[in-house]
Amino acid sequence: MTPQELLKRYAAGKTNFKGFSLNGIDLSGADLIGANLQLADLESANLTFAFLTRANFQQTNLSKVQLSGANLNQANLSKANLSDANLHGVSLQGADLRSAQLMLADLMDANLIEADLRNADLSGANLTGACLRGANLRQEDRKYVANLRGANLHQADLEGANLRGADLAYVDLSEANLANVTFQNADLHGANLSKAYLKEANLSDAKLAGANLAEADLTNASVNRADLSEATLTQATMYDIRLTDAILRQANLQDAVLTRGNLNLVDLSRADLSRAQLQSATLIEAYLGRTNLTGADLTDAILTRAEISSAILIDAILTGTTMPDDTIHA
């Protein structure tokens, strides 16, 4: 079918193109709002700047398609194949992308506000500068686990997004806006979160081993029981952070700000907290075996029943600190 024939049918009110073979068709700038293209073959088609609001692309083959600048708000793309597609600047606000295949897709500067991405495969996708505010990538059961392994989300806006249980291993979230994002039980091991804005984010029970959080802002974040072993948190801002029972073995926290942080029961064995700010922090029953606290400021911190016998406290400031035996350091 030629583009002219298809558009003529659509203009006549015939919007059902289910299962049509439209491989390589040029529909750039076309108005196909509400069209039914379910199960169609649109591989390598050109839909640049097309109007596709509320269109049905369920289980459609859109691999290698050109969709840059297109409007797909509230479209149904569940189980669609968008692998290696060009979605630069596309608008997918409120779109249904459940179980969609988006491997290696280019979603740079895409609008994915409130999109449903449960079980979507975004491995290797480029989401640089994309907006995913309020997007749903949460794990409901093992059938709905979003895969963003190795994806590029540099400077992306995910404020308020739900990424509970998502696979984000080795993802690039550097300088991303992650305020109020739910990462509970997510796999972020080896991820790059340097300079990310994580204020009030929920990272409880997340896997962050080896992750890079240098200069990240984790103010008032919840990171309880998370695994941050060997993670980099140099110069991170963590006012009022909650790290109860977290694992930070061999983590690098040089010059980190942990003022008023809750680090009760935390494992900081062999971690480097040199010059860290721990004023008024609570470290009740924390384990600091061979922890480097050289030059750290522990003014008014609480170390009740903490294990610090082998910690390095050279030049540490302990004014008003409650020591493991409940005595107050002068």
Your description of this structure?
With 330 residues, the protein is mostly loops. The protein contains 1 helix and no strands. The protein has one helix at residues 3-11. The termini are far apart. The mean pLDDT is 95.
Indicate the mean pLDDT.
Answer: 95
Helix proportion of residues, in percent? under 10%
Counting DSSP H or I runs of 4 or more residues, the number of helices is 1
Taking all Cα atoms into account, the compactness measure Rg is: 24 Å
Distance between the termini: 85 Å
- Which parts are unreliable, with pLDDT below 50 for 5 consecutive residues or more? none
Largest sheet descriptor: none
Category by helix and strand content = little secondary structure
Number of strands: 0
Shape: rod-shaped
Strand content: under 5%
Order of helices and strands: H
Write a brief caption for the model.
By secondary structure, the protein is low in regular secondary structure. The protein has one helix spanning 3-11. The mean pLDDT is 95.
Topology summary:
Blueprint: H1 3-11
Q: What key phrases describe this protein's structure?
A:
330 residues, little secondary structure, single chain
